[in-house]
Specification:
With 701 residues, this protein is an alpha+beta fold. It is built from 24 helices and 17 strands. Strands 9, 10, 11, 12, 13, 14, 15, 16 and 17 form a nine-stranded mixed sheet that branches. Strands 1, 2, 5, 6, 7 and 8 form a six-stranded mixed sheet that branches. α9 crosses α10, α11 runs parallel beside α17 and α21 packs antiparallel against α22. The chain is globular and about 100 Å long. The relative contact order is 0.10. Bound molecules: adenosine-5'-diphosphate and magnesium ion. Adenosine-5'-diphosphate binds next to β9, β11 and β14.
């Protein structure tokens, strides 16, 4: 593709604002925009006009079908396609699409997890158009982003609570801004830029490994002689074929209006990253789902497999998804951007302290929001953030917070501590000197970056929690300050912020988050260290958290309980599949390699000895002994894993089952793996029916 045509293809498959403006009558366009901004109801006659325009546009772009596209609790996206075709009496057909079909769908979606929210007799779920995320065309279908809920209106998806949380945050932020004198602001949006990490490996090799096929991660495999220790892959030169892949991917994403921006090699061999330009949370979540889908699709087309698992390979870095998060007003002001003037910085301090309080108060449920079986392998593994949440603010902000803490009112603090003008707060510059990569929650100049989410997670999950927690912190700030007289406002506010800081400073940490000292220190400070999903999940239904989700109308208690059950079940199911896959792969594929090779060495050694009886054959005998020893250990652990897995299958309590998978099954798998890997290191590649780590990680052209 020529560079000149990029603006032309960008968003060419999107029923965008621009397209709507061109194709809809002015009053209809205005009604849609109002609905998408304020979430108001759209009249059916308006919907009919929009549907007609959408259909026409879609057909012009080659679409024959439409689908309500939604995000059930599997964490993936779901779609069911209907054609526009409607047969006529004379044996012909016309293309039809009504406002009703646009606004509401009734997929027979009874097989999606509902955590008991739907009794089977009313199993039907409903999809409802979300006009705040644009429709688009993919594979000749018109995709309409929708929310998915039950007959009773309970959320069965990730979009509904995300939209609710954005609304809650907007409401509370606007109240606080009005207190601060920004009366013109009527709406505040959450903005998100999610950096996506992934691995690319050869497709033929991928197809030869049952573990990658079934589980997305390797369950056995001796380390390659080379790993990532040379640090030669990070930001390294792109291999030509990989560069082509990335280019293809960008192009597909641009057509769909996904603002893919940055691409580079990551730390681990064969690992890469793509970062988009940030967008409103709702769109960013939809676009991240599309990004993950396209990564896989384009990989398949180009002879690769794209791995989005959090830890596909033992011993080298896993993949995450950094969630860059900020707040922007309808006037275009970024509320986490420290300004130049006194007023701007005063306002910045209020929002900064809101985030700090929120993350401290709701660290447990924030941690739970990123818990998955895959991400458990990554967090706390010396390459990703620890499982303890702390906030990094950088030296400059830390110095300033210290001034606040020591009780200097802002102007004095400025004068004595920062040596700047007497009447203004310091111009807090972007702290680019130290970006502390080890921090799970870092201030990066004009936004926060939450680094705990795993690569395959829907970014909706952490943002629902973050938005709700910050909404609550802002609501408390509002309550504390709403009755303060104007002449005392600034003084009282600073006093209140100081109190907040005293209460929440335990969450601030600027040092090395990977160190053991920090984990010990965090424990002293009373911070949570929830190491695994079964440990983290109960916080989802802890009374204090239920209360805040209910208060801000993000989740009902029932919705939280259903999610709690689904996430626990999902965790157990994932490890169950891993256990079965591992057993099969070891019994069949690995054993085939082991037995054939053992026989070959034994035969060869016997032959040699027959020829020359006093030959020592020390190395051969050593190998035979090692393999023989491993064989019996592997047999023992296979039997144990199999028996323990059968026990797990009989368990009924979701939390107990998940704990058992964590404590027993994963431990069994680890022990089994250690013997398999030890033996595998002795077996030449030719004998193994699956590719080794060395081949998987270093053979990509
Ligand atoms: P790094 O790799 O150093 O973290 P990048 O520039 O690769 O930085 O990624 C930063 C991400 O943050 C991008 O996706 C960018 O669009 C996003 N971002 C920038 N400003 C904001 C903001 N105000 N709100 C949300 N995300 C933002
Ligand atoms: Mg980053």
């Amino acid at each position: 593709m020529e560079t000149e045509s990029i603006p032309e293809i960008y968003g060419s498959l999107v029923f965008s604002d621009k397209v709507m403006k061109e194709r809809l009558p002015k009053d209809i366009y205005k009604a849609v925009i109002k609905t998408s901004r304020n979430g108001t109801h759209l009249e059916l006659d308006v919907a009919n006009v929009v549907a007609a325009a959408m259909k026409e546009w879609a057909i012009e772009h080659g679409a024959t079908h439409f689908t309500h596209w939604f995000q059930p609790l599997t964490g993936l996206t779901a779609e069911k396609h209907d054609s526009f075709i409607s047969p006529t009496a004379d044996g012909g057909a016309i293309m039809e699409f009504s406002g009703k079909e646009l606004v509401k769908g009734e997929p027979d979606a009874s097989s999606f997890p509902s955590g008991g929210l739907r009794a089977t007799f009313e199993a039907r779920g409903y999809t409802a158009w979300d006009p705040s995320s644009p429709a688009f065309i993919k594979d000749r279908s018109l995709y309409i982003p929708t929310a998915f809920c039950s007959y009773g209106g309970e959320a069965l998806d990730k979009k509904t609570p995300l939209l609710r949380s954005m609304e809650a945050l907007s409401t509370e932020a606007v109240k606080v801004l009005h207190l601060l004198g920004k009366k013109e602001v009527t709406h505040v949006d959450t903005t998100i830029g999610s950096e996506q990490e992934y691995f690319l490996i050869d497709k033929d090799m991928y197809l030869k490994r049952k573990d990658l096929l079934m589980c997305g991660r390797t369950l056995i495999g001796a380390p390659a002689p080379k790993g990532q220790e040379m640090e030669d892959h990070y930001f390294g030169v792109l291999k030509p074929k990989v560069a082509e892949y990335m280019h293809d991917l960008d192009e597909e994403l641009w057509k769909l209006g996904v603002p893919a921006k940055t691409k580079h090699n990551e730390v681990a061999p064969s690992q890469h990253e793509l970062a988009p330009v940030f967008e409103t949370a709702n769109k960013a979540v939809d676009h991240n789902q599309l990004t993950m889908e396209m990564m896989k699709k384009v990989a398949d087309k180009r002879g690769y497999a794209c791995l989005l698992h959090e830890k596909p390979f033992e011993g080298i870095n896993g993949s995450g998804k950094h969630n860059n998060w900020s707040l922007v007003t309808d006037q275009g002001e970024n509320l986490l951007d420290p300004g130049k003037t006194h007023e701007e910085n005063f306002q910045f301090m209020v929002f900064l302290m809101a985030v700090i309080s929120a993350v401290d108060d709701y660290q447990d449920v924030l941690r739970a929001s990123v818990a998955t079986a895959g991400n458990d392998h990554r967090l706390g593994a010396n390459e990703a953030p620890p499982a303890v949440i702390s906030i990094f603010v950088g030296d400059e902000l830390a110095g300033f917070l210290k001034g606040l803490e020591e009780g200097h009112l802002p102007d004095k603090a400025v004068k004595t501590k920062m040596g700047m003008g007497a009447t203004v707060l310091p111009h807090i510059t972007k702290d680019t000197t130290d970006r502390n990569r080890t921090s799970p929650f870092a201030f990066t100049g004009n936004k926060f970056e939450f680094r705990m989410p795993g690569s395959s997670l829907s970014v909706a999950d952490p943002n629902i929690v973050l938005n709700t927690a910050v909404a609550e912190a802002l609501s408390q700030i509002y309550d504390a300050l709403k009755d303060v007289p104007e002449d005392k406002f600034e003084e009282e506010t600073m006093k209140y912020l100081k109190e907040l800081l005293a209460k929440h400073k335990r969450i601030l940490f600027n040092g090395n988050g990977y160190s053991d000292e920090w984990i010990a220190e965090a424990e002293k400070r009373g911070l949570c260290n929830l190491k695994s999903l079964p440990e983290a999940m109960p916080s989802l239904i802890a009374p204090k958290n239920v209360k805040v989700f209910e208060k801000h109308k993000v989740f009902t208690e029932q919705e939280l309980k259903s999610r709690y059950d689904i996430f626990l079940e999902n965790y157990s199911k994932t490890i169950h599949i891993e256990s079965l896959t591992m057993q099969e792969m070891v019994r069949k594929d690995f054993t085939e390699g082991l037995v054939t090779y053992l026989k070959a060495v034994t035969d060869e050694t016997a032959k040699k000895k027959a020829l020359i009886p006093d030959l020592k054959c020390e190395y051969e005998e050593h190998t035979i002994r090692v393999l023989d020893e491993s064989e019996s250990k592997i047999g023992e652990w296979l039997t144990k894993l199999s028996a323990d897995t059968k026990k797990a299958e009989q368990m009924t309590d979701n939390l107990e089952t998940a704990k058992y998978y964590h404590e027993v099954i994963l431990e069994d798998m680890e022990s089994l793996r250690s013997y398999v890997d030890e033996a595998e290191a002795y077996i030449p590649e030719d004998y193994l029916p699956y590719p080794t780590y060395g081949e998987l990680l270093f053979s990509l052209r």
